[in-house]
Design goal:
Blueprint lengths: L1 H12 L9 H5 L3 H15 L12 H14 L11 H10 L2 H13 L1 H14 L12 H29 L4 H30 L4 H53 L4 H42 L5 H27 L3 H49 L9 H60 L4 H132 L3 H5 L2 H28 L1 H47 L1
Helix pairs in contact: 1-6, 3-6, 13-14
C-alpha cells in the first residue's frame, strides 16, 4: 500500500498535474478533494471530464466516472466487484477504492488517452429496433456505420505512417535538398541558354532537339506497348489452347451423351453421394467422436502407476477369457440356418469391404481433383494479375493437362467399378432373399412331412448330429496337432531351462550377497528416514511458530505505522489550527482597524448584522402581505364572479344565434312549400 501511495504522489507531482503533495498531505485529503483529484486525472485522459465536482450532483458525478472507467475497461479488485458498493464508495470518496483507481490510471495514461480518443468515434450509438424500421433513420444509421469503418481504416493508416520510421525532419531535409537541386538546375539551364543564344539558328536547333526528345519518348512508349501486346498475345494463345482442350474433352464426353446415359450417370452420382452421406461419413464421424471422448477421458484421468497398469492388464485378460468362452458356447449351439447363410454373409461382408475401400478411393480422388482445381484457379488468377509475366509455360501446361487426363480416366474407371460393385451387391442381395424364401418353403414342407410321418424334429436332430460329429472330428484333429506341438514345445522349454540355469548360476550366487547387502542398506535407510522425519517435523513446527510471530509483528508494525501517520497528521492539523488562532488573536487585539476587519470574528459579526437586517426587511414584507391578504382575496373573488358572468353571457349569445339560424331555415322551408 505504501508503494502504491508513493507512486501516486510521484506521478501527481509531475507534469501536467503539479500537485506538490507528500505522503502525509495526500493521506490527509478529504473525500471531496480526493474525488476532485480523481476527476482531474480523468480530465487529463478525456478533456470532456474537466469540471468542478462541487458544481455537479453526486449521482451525476458517479454516473459519469463509472461510464468512463467502464469504457477504459477498468476492473475493480476482487473485494469491490459489487456495483452498488463500488458506486457507494465513489460517492463517499473512499480511500481504499479511489487509491487503486488512481494507481491504475497513472500507470497507463498514454494508452488510456488513445483509448478515450478512439471511444469517441468507435462506440456505436444504440438505436432501438423499432426506430430502424424508418427508412430515413435506417439509411442514416448505415451511413454512420460506414463512417465508423472509414475512421478505423484511416486510423490504422495513420498509425502505420507513425510507426513506419519516416520523420518530419527527414522529409523537410529531403525537400530542402530537392529545392537546392532545383535552383542549381535552373541556374544551369540559364547558363546553357546564354551559350546557345550566341549560336546562329539556335531556335531551329532547339526545335529539332525538342522534336527528337518527343520522338524518343514516343518510341519508348511504343516499345512498351509492343511488349504488352506480345504478353497479351501469349496469354490469349494460352487461353485458346486451354479452351480448345476443354472443347475437345467436352466433345469426347458428349460422344456417348444421351438422356439415358446422363440419367444413369446422375443416378450413380446420387447413389454414391447418398451412400457417403448416410453410411460412410456418419460412421467416420461417430468413430472420431468416440476417439475424442476416449482421449478426453484419458486426459482427465490422473497419472497411472505400475499397480494401475497391472490391474488393467488383469481386466483385459479376464475379458479375453470371457470372449473365448462365449465363442465356444456359440460354436456348441450353432444354428443350421446360420451355417447355410454363412457363404452369403461372407460374400456380403466382402462386398461391403470392397464398397468401403472404393468409397475411400473415390473420396481421395475427389479431394485430389478439388486440389487440382484450386491450384488451377490459383494459377489462372496469378496469370491474370501478373501484368504480362509468364506464369504457366507450354511444357508445364501440357504436363498439367496430361496429369488431369490421367486423373479423369482413373476417376471414370473407379466410378465404373463402384457402379459394377453396386449392381453385383444388388444381385447378391436379391439372390440372398430368394434363397431365404426357398429355404423357408423347404423347411415348412419338411416339417409338414415329418409331422405326417410322426417324426417331427428329425431333420433338425440329424443336422445337429452331423454338425456335432463334424465339430468333434475337427476338434480331435486339432487336439492331435496340439499334443504334438505341446510335446515339441516341452522339449524346447526343458532345453532352454537347462541353458538358462547354467547361465544364471554365477549370477544367482552374486545375487545372494547383493540381497544381504540390500537388506542392510534398507534397514539403515529406514533408521535414517525415521530420524529425518522427526527432525523435519520439529523444524516444520518451529517454522510455523516463527511465521505466526512474523505475521503478528508485521500486523503490529502496520498498526503502529498507521498510528504514527495519524498522530503526525493530527499534530499538523492542530499546529495549523493554533497558527490560525494566533493570527486571529493578533488581528483582534491589533489597533489597526484594517487588520481588525480581517479577523474572522469581525467578518462573522458583519454577516450576522447583514442577515438580521435582511430578516427584518422580510418580516416587514410578510406583515404587508398579511394586511393586504383579505382585500386581495375579495378582489380575486370578484374577478372570478365577473369571469363566470361573462361566460354565461357568451353561452346565452351562442344559444340565441343558433335559435335565429333555425328560425330562418324553417321560414325558408315554408316559403318553398308556398311556391309549390
Amino acid at each position: 500500500m505504501s508503494e502504491q501511495l508513493k507512486f501516486i504522489v510521484e506521478q501527481l507531482n509531475k507534469e501536467p498535474f503539479k500537485k506538490n503533495f507528500n505522503l502525509i498531505t495526500f493521506d490527509t485529503l478529504e473525500p471531496m478533494q480526493l474525488l476532485q483529484i480523481l476527476n482531474d486525472v480523468l480530465a487529463e485522459i478525456d478533456p470532456k471530464q474537466a469540471l468542478d465536482i462541487r458544481e455537479e450532483m453526486p449521482e451525476q458525478t458517479v454516473k459519469r466516472m463509472c461510464a468512463l472507467l467502464g469504457m477504459l475497461k477498468y476492473k475493480p479488485p476482487g473485494n469491490l466487484s459489487d456495483v452498488t458498493s463500488f458506486r457507494q464508495g465513489l460517492v463517499t470518496g473512499s480511500k481504499p477504492l479511489i487509491h487503486p483507481i488512481l494507481h491504475w490510471l497513472l500507470q497507463r495514461v498514454p494508452e488510456l488517452k488513445k483509448r478515450a480518443y478512439l471511444a469517441r468515434f468507435l462506440v456505436k450509438l444504440e438505436v432501438p429496433a423499432e426506430f430502424l424500421q424508418d427508412d430515413v433513420i435506417n439509411d442514416t444509421y448505415h451511413q454512420y456505420e460506414e463512417l465508423v469503418e472509414g475512421f478505423k481504416t484511416y486510423h490504422k493508416e495513420c498509425e502505420q505512417l507513425r510507426t513506419s520510421g519516416f520523420s518530419t525532419a527527414e522529409i523537410r531535409r529531403d525537400i530542402s535538398a530537392m529545392e537546392e537541386e532545383k535552383d542549381q538546375l535552373i541556374k544551369r539551364v540559364e547558363r546553357l541558354k546564354k551559350r546557345v543564344e550566341s549560336v546562329s539558328n539556335h531556335q531551329r536547333m532547339l526545335e529539332q532537339a525538342r522534336q527528337l526528345r518527343v520522338e524518343k519518348e514516343r518510341e519508348e512508349s511504343l516499345t512498351h506497348q509492343k511488349q504488352e501486346q506480345k504478353n497479351q498475345l501469349f496469354q490469349a494463345e494460352q487461353r485458346l489452347l486451354r479452351s480448345q482442350q476443354q472443347l475437345k474433352d467436352m466433345r469426347q464426353a458428349a460422344t456417348d451423351a444421351n438422356p439415358e446415359s446422363l440419367m444413369k450417370r446422375l443416378e450413380e452420382e446420387i447413389k454414391i453421394n447418398s451412400y457417403m452421406v448416410s453410411e460412410k461419413l456418419p460412421k467416420e464421424l461417430e468413430g472420431m467422436r468416440r476417439t475424442v471422448q476416449y482421449l478426453q477421458k484419458v486426459a482427465l484421468e490422473p497419472a497411472m502407476g505400475q499397480a494401475d497398469l497391472q490391474e488393467l492388464e488383469d481386466k483385459i485378460k479376464e475379458a479375453d477369457c470371457q470372449i473365448n468362452h462365449l465363442i465356444e458356447k456359440r460354436m456348441m449351439r450353432n444354428d443350421p440356418m446360420d451355417d447355410n447363410l454363412t457363404l452369403y454373409r461372407q460374400q456380403a461382408s466382402i462386398i461391403i469391404r470392397r464398397k468401403e475401400s472404393k468409397a475411400e478411393e473415390l473420396q481421395e480422388a475427389r479431394e485430389e481433383l478439388a486440389a487440382a482445381e484450386r491450384e488451377l484457379r490459383q494459377r489462372s488468377s496469378q496469370a491474370q494479375g501478373s501484368d504480362g509475366e509468364e506464369v504457366i509455360r507450354g511444357d508445364e501446361l501440357k504436363r498439367l493437362l496430361v496429369k488431369l487426363r490421367g486423373k479423369g480416366t482413373v476417376y471414370k474407371k473407379k466410378r465404373q467399378e463402384i457402379a459394377e460393385l453396386k449392381a453385383e451387391y444388388g444381385v447378391l442381395q436379391r439372390t440372398e432373399e430368394i434363397l431365404k424364401q426357398r429355404h423357408e418353403t423347404v423347411q415348412q414342407k419338411l416339417q409338414t412331412m415329418e409331422a405326417e410321418k410322426g417324426i417331427s424334429g428329425y431333420s433338425n436332430t440329424q443336422e445337429e448330429l452331423e454338425r456335432v460329429s463334424a465339430m468333434k472330428s475337427e476338434l480331435d484333429e486339432k487336439k492331435g496337432r496340439t499334443l504334438d506341438d505341446m510335446s515339441e514345445m516341452v522339449k524346447k522349454l526343458n532345453s532352454m531351462i537347462v541353458e538358462k540355469k547354467s547361465a544364471l548360476a554365477p549370477i544367482i550366487k552374486e545375487l545372494r550377497s547383493l540381497r544381504q547387502h540390500c537388506q542392510e542398506l534398507s534397514q539403515e535407510y529406514e533408521e535414517k528416514k525415521a530420524q529425518y522425519e522427526s527432525c523435519a517435523a520439529g523444524l516444520e513446527s518451529n517454522r510455523s511458530k516463527l511465521e505466526q510471530e512474523v505475521k503478528a509483528l508485521r500486523e503490529e508494525m502496520g498498526q503502529k505505522e498507521n498510528r504514527y501517520h495519524y498522530i503526525n497528521s493530527m499534530s499538523e492539523i492542530i499546529e495549523m489550527q493554533m497558527r490560525r488562532a494566533a493570527e486571529e488573536m493578533k488581528a483582534y487585539v491589533s489597533s489597526d482597524p484594517q487588520e481588525r476587519k480581517k479577523a474572522i470574528r469581525e467578518v462573522y459579526m458583519k454577516n450576522i448584522s447583514e442577515q438580521e437586517l435582511l430578516g427584518k426587511k422580510l418580516r416587514e414584507e410578510q406583515k404587508m402581505v398579511r394586511d393586504s391578504h383579505s382585500t386581495n382575496m375579495e378582489q380575486m373573488k370578484m374577478w372570478c364572479d365577473l369571469e363566470q358572468l361573462m361566460e354565461c353571457k357568451r353561452q346565452c349569445f351562442i344559444k340565441a344565434q343558433s335559435q335565429v339560424s333555425i328560425g330562418q331555415v324553417i321560414q325558408e322551408g315554408g316559403e318553398d312549400r308556398l311556391v309549390l
